[in-house]
Amino acid sequence: KSGGKMDSSSYFRRKEKRFRFFIRRMVKAQSFYWIVLCVVGLNTLCVAMVHYDQPEWLTTALYTAEFVFLGLFLTEMTLKMYGLGGRNYFHSSFNCFDFGVIVGSICEVIWDIIKPGSSFGISVLRALRLLRIFKVTKYWNSL
């Protein structure tokens, strides 16, 4: 005789396992990799657009874009951590690097909210985030 609690618990466990498997397949797909690389490329373009005496609208747009990119990178990281599991996620040096840059960027945002205008090196974090473009090197045979 099985109780209702036991049945619903195993039902949700099976559903969660299927969902995790789906996410794992998604984050390991070549298309996911190229989408992330395109987002990194767009982020690179936005950072490259910053220049002295730029119009206020551009400053506002690029500032907003930074949050959008951070949200996208945070989503990518969360999906990978969930789909691959913590141990497998941190087994990759690229993922460890991404994790550090994303956590640093989140700390930067929190610091800017607490003490506006006293940034502790957003340009360094941006530069580190741009290094993600080198993930493409794992597909270059001629290195």
Automatic annotation (TrEMBL):
<protein>
    <submittedName>
        <fullName>Calcium channel, voltage-dependent, N type, alpha 1B subunit, b</fullName>
    </submittedName>
</protein>
<dbReference type="GO" id="GO:0098703">
    <property type="term" value="P:calcium ion import across plasma membrane"/>
</dbReference>
<dbReference type="GO" id="GO:0046872">
    <property type="term" value="F:metal ion binding"/>
</dbReference>
<keyword id="KW-1015">Disulfide bond</keyword>
<keyword id="KW-0813">Transport</keyword>
<feature type="transmembrane region" description="Helical">
    <location>
        <begin position="57"/>
        <end position="75"/>
    </location>
</feature>
<feature type="domain" description="Ion transport">
    <location>
        <begin position="30"/>
        <end position="143"/>
    </location>
</feature>
<keyword id="KW-0406">Ion transport</keyword>
<keyword id="KW-0597">Phosphoprotein</keyword>
<keyword id="KW-0325">Glycoprotein</keyword>
<dbReference type="InterPro" id="IPR005821">
    <property type="entry name" value="Ion_trans_dom"/>
</dbReference>
<keyword id="KW-0407">Ion channel</keyword>
<dbReference type="Pfam" id="PF00520">
    <property type="entry name" value="Ion_trans"/>
</dbReference>
<keyword id="KW-1133">Transmembrane helix</keyword>
<dbReference type="InterPro" id="IPR027359">
    <property type="entry name" value="Volt_channel_dom_sf"/>
</dbReference>
<keyword id="KW-0677">Repeat</keyword>
<keyword id="KW-0472">Membrane</keyword>
<keyword id="KW-0479">Metal-binding</keyword>
<keyword id="KW-0109">Calcium transport</keyword>
<keyword id="KW-0107">Calcium channel</keyword>
<dbReference type="GO" id="GO:0005891">
    <property type="term" value="C:voltage-gated calcium channel complex"/>
</dbReference>
<dbReference type="InterPro" id="IPR050599">
    <property type="entry name" value="VDCC_alpha-1_subunit"/>
</dbReference>
<dbReference type="GO" id="GO:0043025">
    <property type="term" value="C:neuronal cell body"/>
</dbReference>
<dbReference type="GO" id="GO:0008331">
    <property type="term" value="F:high voltage-gated calcium channel activity"/>
</dbReference>
<keyword id="KW-0851">Voltage-gated channel</keyword>
<keyword id="KW-0812">Transmembrane</keyword>
<feature type="transmembrane region" description="Helical">
    <location>
        <begin position="32"/>
        <end position="51"/>
    </location>
</feature>
<dbReference type="GO" id="GO:0007268">
    <property type="term" value="P:chemical synaptic transmission"/>
</dbReference>
<dbReference type="GO" id="GO:0045202">
    <property type="term" value="C:synapse"/>
</dbReference>
<keyword id="KW-0106">Calcium</keyword>
